[in-house]
Write a structure and sequence with these properties.
The complex is a heterodimer of chains A (311) and B (225).
Chain A: H1 2-22, E1 40-42, E2 49-51, E3 55-56, H2 67-82, E4 87-89, H3 97-108, E5 115-120, H4 128-139, E6 146-149, H5 155-167, E7 173-177, H6 184-193, E8 198-202, H7 214-221, E9 224-228, H8 235-240, H9 257-266, E10 273-274, H10 281-289, H11 298-310
Parallel strand pairs in A: 3-4, 4-5, 5-6, 6-7, 7-8, 8-9, 9-10
Antiparallel strand pairs in A: 1-2
Helix pairs in contact in A: 2-3, 2-10, 3-4, 6-7
Chain B: H1 3-7, H2 19-33, H3 37-51, H4 56-82, H5 87-108, H6 119-132, H7 134-141, H8 154-163, H9 170-194, H10 201-216
Helix pairs in contact in B: 2-4, 3-4, 3-6, 4-5, 4-8, 5-9, 6-8, 6-10, 8-9, 8-10, 9-10
Classes of the chains: A alpha/beta (311), B mainly alpha (225).
Amino acid sequence: MAGWFSRRQFLINAGLAGLALKSPSLFANTSGTPSLSPIMRQIPGANESIPAIGMGTWITFNVGGDEQLVAQRTRVLKTFFDLGGTVVDGSPMYGTAADVIGEALDSLDAHDRIFAATKIWTGDESETRQEAARSGRRWGLDQFDLLQVHNLLGWQGHLETLKQMKANGEVRYIGITTSHGRRHREFAQIMEREPLDFVQLTYNVLDREVENRLLPLAQERGIGVIVNRPFQGGSLFRRFQSEPLPGWAGEAGISNWAEFFLKFIISHPAVTCAIPATSKVEHMKENMGALYGALPDADQRQRMADYVRSL
Amino acid sequence: MSGADWLSYSLQDFVMFGPQVFLRLFVRINQDLWPWQVLAVVAAIGIPVLLFRQGRNARCFAVGLMVVAWVASGYGFLVGYFGPINWPAAWFGWAFVAQGGLLATAMLFGGVHGGALSSGRFVAPWLIVVCGLPWLAVAESGQWQALALFGIAPGTTAAAGALIVAVITGPWRWLYLPLLVLWSLFSAAMFWVLQTSWLLVTPVATLLLVGAGFWLSPRPARSLD
């Protein structure tokens, strides 16, 4: 897998180098420190790092057989890869999103640039392998990097099979997911006793309950954390986009609201990766801006939370 | 999942697509069908003409066109275009097909009466539905290709189909009602989440037209049957 990763890293760096020549403003140094390298996070317990900003596909990639929109989403995915992204997260629950990702990967010939994460979403606990295989066919992949039990649906049976699959080398990492703050007590219990590589949960500047228990537990247990709903389903933009950024935002490496929300998340030491979703190339560029530059420190994070509450 | 878990979901969590993708469905089906939309327009205008012609055959032909409209919009739009991005839509699509089957069965087994209808009171709302509602998708999307025509788009078809309650007799009309109500509630909830406020007019109109259909139906004492 080391060779595979090196190739991916080469592609990322090659893309970044080309991009830096064309878009110097993207890499504008606001903090006085070198900022060309993407912010990478080590997967706990593994000799592998992933970019701290990934991509979700909920709603945005469910476009059915609309060729015009498939081509447009392909451009979004291309922008994501060009700006150094690798982690793409999906689920069989998301309608045609898996097919659209597969079509886009084919168009971009980018199967080796992706850290592919999907979920097992079926109440039939004997269907784990079949569901993973079906998703693999839709994405056009032989195997996924990460398989997660979606919203704890049938988690006991699925997790047992996923552990076997990992032992057999059929998947590299396994995990569980929740969203919207659901079933956190049960989620914590599973984190305490199961050998998970990743958990996926909702965390953003307003939904911070996970700071109390789940994020410290992930650190303690050496579990990677993927953060969904970083923009609270877009409502953070609707609420705050018309407001000015705080005057000190530049000091924290922040130049727009997308970076504000995302850097708040990925600056938490327990967080491995945030997975914002978008259907627009321009928004993808803004999101990927959070992958570069300085990150807010603990004091600045507190000021960010206070500022949002004050608006 | 427990009941509390289900309650933690919002309506928004069940709508897995955005407004742009939904409105593009109208554009795509119109592009794919062109120029056969002309037949749908002819049917939309022809139904009231046939309903008010003398003779049972003309009325049966009108109802037959409504049957085709239910089946075509259900199988074509809902199953073929909308279903892939929203699985409940495919179920509704098959329910539209069944609604067409129900109406055909009612027609064959005496469930469609030959009683006189007030032409003005029927034709005015019918024309408003088939000529006015299609433009709501255009207003919402800003693309005239998104015209939601009767017999192609399920919302316009259901709204017009609600008026057909006026020619269905007693027990059949109660079997005909549930889909109209369920579809209206489903589509209203969906448009609410998508924030496509123009489109909300269609399900509201459908529910009002169900009432209009009952009101327009001749009383038994006045029936010519």
